[in-house]
Design a protein that fits this description.
It is a single chain. It is globular, with a radius of gyration of 25 Å. Helix 1 crosses helix 12 and helix 5 packs parallel to helix 6. It is of the alpha/beta class and about 600 residues long. Strands 1-2-4-5-6-7-8-9 form an eight-stranded parallel β-barrel, surrounded by five helices. Strands 10, 15, 16, 18, 22, 23, 25 and 26 form an eight-stranded mixed beta sheet that branches. It folds into two domains: about 280 residues, TIM Barrel (Alpha-Beta Barrel), CATH 3.20.20; about 210 residues, Galactose-binding domain-like (Jelly Rolls), CATH 2.60.120.260. It has 13 helices and 26 strands.
């Protein structure tokens, strides 16, 4: 009885702290992330813009890359997604985020209230996220930094010189080698202090041929210093000026005009007006001179359609570059939101809740359809470390919920975005649902009665796993199951495990009884993890203890997580959670050992 009281007092304290914290988490316009707009500010930066540096989350580990089949949603029968042998030459995906000039509601450290604003959440296929604006130095915002890092994605800022102001800044930089090194050092210090991984360099002005050697030295010095000072550091050159004449000559390929810049950095982001001929010439050059650097060529695709077929036909353009195993740079995926106004279908005032709700619905549908069409060309990733807990929130809400209870109205804060599914949400399988949530502002609506994969992963099972899922069901008859694929990496033997209320087959695991759940939650609370009651505000949480034979548990990982509802009717998935069972005294809980 004392254990029971202790547990629920702990839950109450945790909930109160979170509610109080979020109640005061209002937008303070002084607490903003901002760019550096002048050369003098860059060189004499006193880091007053960087006071939020301690709030940046580290880059999370994620699973090994896997290449999906066209049936990537299905976990039924023998359809699997084999792990790819890791290759240094695997094509990568860079997303260049240019949305209405950026620094919108995402600039606020404590978030804003425009909940329907554009949110990027398709992290599972992205290697590098570039935050872009037309300011001299674009520093990624804290909101996007944390959302990307939580999902295991590297982040780079942008150094751009363009127009008359850019010419002046470049003139001031290309004075001598010492000056270029000062600029490079300042850029590295900013990235290092804010824990992001590097820079996109975009020089779109004429460069005096007599100063070209200084620009090349800048690129080389920045790249070398980034590698030395920043783990996983990257410097990417945008295909712009000629390394031979200094003229502004977009090549749309890698060739003798720009390859000297390619030699000095980690990769090149080509302009968008390429054709199959550009791909063929670049491929020939790579084979002849850069056989280990094919992945370092990112062929650009502007989703707005500059130079290529794009929009909902982006997959057609992508298929061409993917055939050559080049990497991809997707520019302005915010097209899925930015072009909505003419498509919403009614003229309600933009400030009305009806308009915002409809806008959000259209955005989610457009965004999911866009990304679903691209997934078969990309490698996919998922979680790798324990604990792994996600509520599926994408960083905003009509309301803010804690333990299924509303605590706040409209909010937007990508810092609160959870780890997102490996598979793209899609009508007919699962979708992000904004009318209810367990924690955050949204959850997943499970739309299919088929067994549907939501994560690929590499979750270690040493000494067992504590696993839970939280659902809200339209009817008690709507049984819900979570399916796990486990793999013994030593023997390459796999096993399907079904977590459900009552075990009926050999590989089924039954949810734990209430007295056992209390023991688990006390253990988790003592480890510092907020426990979740079995039933709270109409949300039900089922707990499972997965124990493997000790002789094999060292080599066992969970590789896939899938969901299945048994009957028609709405089922909301509010949270899934995996914790290590190391140090948990489980002798009092009767569960069968899993032999794998």
């Amino acid at each position: 009885m004392l254990n029971f009281i202790y547990l629920y007092l702990f839950v109450a304290i945790i909930c109160c702290k979170e509610i109080m914290s979020n109640a005061s988490d209002e937008c303070n316009c002084e607490d903003v992330c901002s760019p550096i707009v002048s050369f003098d500010e860059l060189l004499n930066n006193r880091h007053d813009k960087l006071r939020w540096c301690d709030m940046v989350e580290p880059l999370a580990k994620r699973s090994s890359p896997r290449y999906p089949t066209r049936d990537f949603y299905s976990m039924d029968s023998d359809i699997v997604i084999p792990f790819e042998d890791f290759s240094e030459n695997r094509p990568e995906v860079l997303v260049c985020h240019d949305y209405k000039g950026n620094y919108l509601d995402d600039k606020f450290i404590n978030g804003g209230v425009k909940w329907e604003e554009y949110r990027f959440y398709n992290w599972s296929v992205v290697d590098i996220f570039c935050y872009f604006s037309h300011n001299l130095v674009t520093i990624p915002t804290l909101q996007y930094l944390n959302a990307a890092h939580r999902n295991g994605v590297k982040v780079i800022g942008t150094f751009i010189v363009e127009n008359e102001d850019g010419r002046k800044a470049l003139h001031d930089m290309l004075v001598d080698r010492e000056q270029t090194e000062k600029v490079a050092t300042s850029l590295v210090e900013i990235a290092k202090r804010l824990s992001f991984e590097g820079w996109l360099l975009n020089v779109e002005v004429y460069v005096n041929p007599e100063k070209l050697h200084l620009l090349k030295h800048f690129v080389q010095y920045l790249t070398e210093k980034t590698h030395k000072e920043i783990k996983d550091g990257r410097t990417i050159w945008y295909d712009s000026v000629s390394a031979i004449t200094g003229g502004l000559l977009w090549q749309n390929e890698l060739n003798h005009v720009n390859e000297e810049f390619f030699d000095l950095c980690d990769g090149i982001f080509t302009n968008y007006n390429w054709s199959v001929n550009h791909l063929e010439r670049t491929s020939k050059l790579i084979d002849e001179k850069y056989s280990s650097r094919r992945k370092d060529v990112f062929f650009g695709i502007d989703v707005f359609g500059r130079g290529q077929v794009a929009g909902y036909r982006t997959n057609e353009t992508l298929s061409k570059s993917a055939a050559f195993q080049f990497s991809t740079a997707i520019f302005a995926p915010g097209w899925t939101s930015e072009t909505i106004n003419t498509k919403v279908g009614f003229d309600d005032h933009h400030s009305s809740e009806k308009f915002k709700t409809r806008f959000n619905e259209v955005f989610l549908t457009r965004n999911d359809n866009f990304w679903s069409s691209l997934y078969t060309y990309f490698y996919i990733f998922g979680p790798k470390s324990l604990p792994f807990v996600t509520n599926f929130c994408i960083g905003s809400g009509k309301k803010l919920y804690r333990m299924g209870k509303e605590v706040k109205g409209n909010w937007f804060n990508l810092k609160a975005q959870a780890f997102q599914p490996s598979m793209p949400s899609s009508n007919g399988y699962f979708t992000h649902y904004y009318e209810d949530s367990f924690n955050g502002g949204s959850c997943l609506s499970i739309d299919s009665n088929e067994l549907t994969r939501i994560f690929t992963c590499e979750l270690p099972c040493k000494e067992g796993l504590i696993f839970s899922f939280t659902t809200k069901k339209e009817s008690p008859e709507n049984d819900f199951e979570v399916h796990l694929n486990a793999l013994n990496t030593a023997t390459n033997r796999g096993l399907k495990i079904v977590c459900k209320k009552e075990a009926k087959h050999a590989n089924d695991i039954s949810s734990l009884k209430s007295e056992d759940v209390r023991s688990l939650n006390i253990f988790l609370a003592n480890k510092g993890y907020p426990p979740t009651p079995e039933l709270i505000n109409s949300w039900e949480t089922q707990y499972f203890l997965l124990k493997f034979n000790k002789s094999s548990s060292e080599n066992i990982i969970v590789t896939d997580i899938g969901v299945k509802k048994i009957h028609r009717g709405k089922v909301l998935l509010g949270q899934i959670a995996f914790y290590s069972a190391i140090d948990f005294e489980s002798d009092s809980i009767r569960v069968k050992n899993i032999d794998l």
